[in-house]
Amino acid sequence: MSYQRGSLKKVKRREGEIWVLRYRVTNSDGRRVENVMPIGLVREFPKDKDAWREADRLGLSVRINDNPLPGRIRFDFLAEHYLRADFGADAVRPKSANTISHVEHIVRAYLVPRFGNEIAEDIKPLDIQRWFKSLHETGGLAWTTIAKMRGVMSRIYKVGNLHEHVTKNPVLHVETRSKTDYNAIVITPEQTLAILKSFPSPLHFTLVLTCAATALRASEMLALRWSDLLWEEGRIRISKRWANGEDGETKTESSNGYVPLHTVLARFLRAWQAQTPFPSEGDFVFPSLKAAGRVPLSASIFVADHLRPAAKKAGVHIVDGQRFGLHNLRHSLSNWLVNKAKVEPKTVQGILRHAKIQTTLDLYAQDDGDETRAAQGEYLTALGVGTQMVQ
């Protein structure tokens, strides 16, 4: 049997009007007949899209499909099964909202429209590879994007194999290129200092200084509370990130950890805590003053209104439309530590919290907590904030 999505219908019940999912089943005499599964009250899910979202959350799209014999299922069934299984209760590690949205887009906007009607195990590696190549040459997709698409498709087969829906994975034999053409703008300590001096706001000053010295991702910076600053231990705890207006899981398991807190940086953070109207342990370190500290400030607004103009004024060459933001401070610190300070790559990996050292430099060495703090201290000294306040 082919994969079926079903359709929505409103039905009156004693408790009120409800949504049901209509689908077809095979009865005892072999005829295909309609059946329904309840989703929820219309007053709780007023729009079609709300009802579909609840149906997906309940896993109804998997439950309404029979389990065909291994090897003869269509790719669209395998893909939908993957979305339910890998992001549901069986997932080894919960996925962030951003990851779920990104993967669903790849599956439903690219993979299913191309391969959905084909038998999963009849899809040939060469057909996949030729399609990927056409996406780059005629579709204009970057190879890094196509490499992510390949990873998702391979994962679909891996989960299908785990649940005994398929026995092979044709994507394993498919080649893509993963090198990106993107070159991040890297700024010098002198340019960073010029940017810092241009900020009249202590909030903006401390935000950029902390980001420059710790290489935290913007979402991790925004999620910081004062309780995450472990003053006596000389560390900052990273256990969450701010995404879609709420706290969420860190980007990767290795991202969940600590970054060093040098005494120089700690001095500036303590000075900001003495000035902020929200200094309590549970308050955001970098709050939105307009929102009375209920949420952190908006990184995108800060970058557009303050950071980019300050960087251009400091002599950073930024072409209109070119990407530049807080993440460039992360690139800049790692570049300086490796190429100027000659810090051990393993130490830099510890600061950046990369899962694999290949992401940092393709080399291995020993990580040490004191060494990461010392490396951060070298950068702060080069920045010119080690001996005196610059505000």
Q: Which terms would index this structure?
A:
391 residues, alpha+beta, DNA polymerase, domain 1, hpI Integrase, Chain A, 3 domains, 3-stranded antiparallel sheet, 15 helices, 8 strands, 45% helix
Report on this structure.
With 391 residues, the chain is an alpha+beta fold. The chain folds into three domains: 1-65, no CATH class; 67-182, Tyrosine recombinase, N-terminal domain (DNA polymerase, domain 1); 189-383, Intergrase catalytic core (hpI Integrase, Chain A). It has 15 helices and eight strands. It has helices spanning 48-57, 60-63, 75-86, 97-115, 125-137, 143-162, 189-197, 202-214, 218-223, 263-275, 299-313, 326-339, 345-352, 357-360, 369-383, and strands at residues 7-13, 16-26, 32-41, 229-230, 235-238, 241-243, 246-248, 257-260. The protein has a three-stranded antiparallel β-sheet with strand order 1-2-3, with helices on one face. Strands 4-5-8 form a three-stranded antiparallel β-sheet. Strand 6 and strand 7 (246-248) form a beta hairpin. Helix 3 runs antiparallel to helix 4 (97-115), helix 3 packs across helix 6 (143-162) and helix 8 (202-214) packs antiparallel against helix 10 (263-275). The protein is globular, with a radius of gyration of 26 Å. Mean pLDDT is 84; it is low at 361-367.
